[in-house]
Amino acid sequence: QVQLVESGGGSVQAGGSLSLSCEASGLTYSSYYCMGWFRQAPGKEREGVAAIDGDGSTTYADSVKGRFTISRDNAKNTLYLQMNSLKPEDTAMYYCAAAGPGLGSDFCQGDLEAWGQGTLVTVSS
């Protein structure tokens, strides 16, 4: 059974930084999967933030390009998201996910296989 557990959320002032982690278990051949982060703010639709394919290629939403960096350590089955220059509009619940291979414009292209419970990021002005 696939399980994804996020950590690292919290509260920060605008301009600050946070680092999110996501530990995956139960993924056979984890490097096969595209891994990504999506977020959902209260009253808003879910949106892709960033994704990284098994070969290390990445994609980002336009709203976070140049501020966020996604990375993965396949040996540790861990996904990361470094968030810098945070803005109040980045406030949301952040979820990590595993999907079939391939990248879209701001997230994985493949079907979602699993996602975590989420970690809350709050950015104050």
Q: Tell how many strands the DSSP assignment holds.
A: 11
As a percent range, the share of helical residues equals: under 10%
Uncertain ranges:
none
List the secondary-structure elements in sequence, H or E.
Answer: EEEEEEEEEEE
The helix count comes to 0
List keywords for this structure.
125 residues, mainly beta, four-stranded antiparallel β-sheet, 0% helix, 50% strand
Could you please describe the fold and organization of this structure?
This protein is an all-beta fold and 125 residues long. The chain contains no helices and 11 strands. It has strands at residues 3-7, 10-13, 18-25, 34-40, 47-52, 58-60, 68-73, 78-83, 92-99, 112-115, 119-124. The strands form 2 sheets. Strands 2, 4, 5, 6, 9, 10 and 11 form a 7-stranded mixed β-sheet that branches. The radius of gyration is 13 Å and the shape is globular. 35% of the residues are buried.
Entry summary:
With about 120 residues, the protein is mostly beta strands. It has strands spanning about 5, 10-15, 20-25, 35-40, 45-50, 60, 70-75, 80-85, 90-100, 110-115, 120-125. The chain is built from no helices and eleven strands.
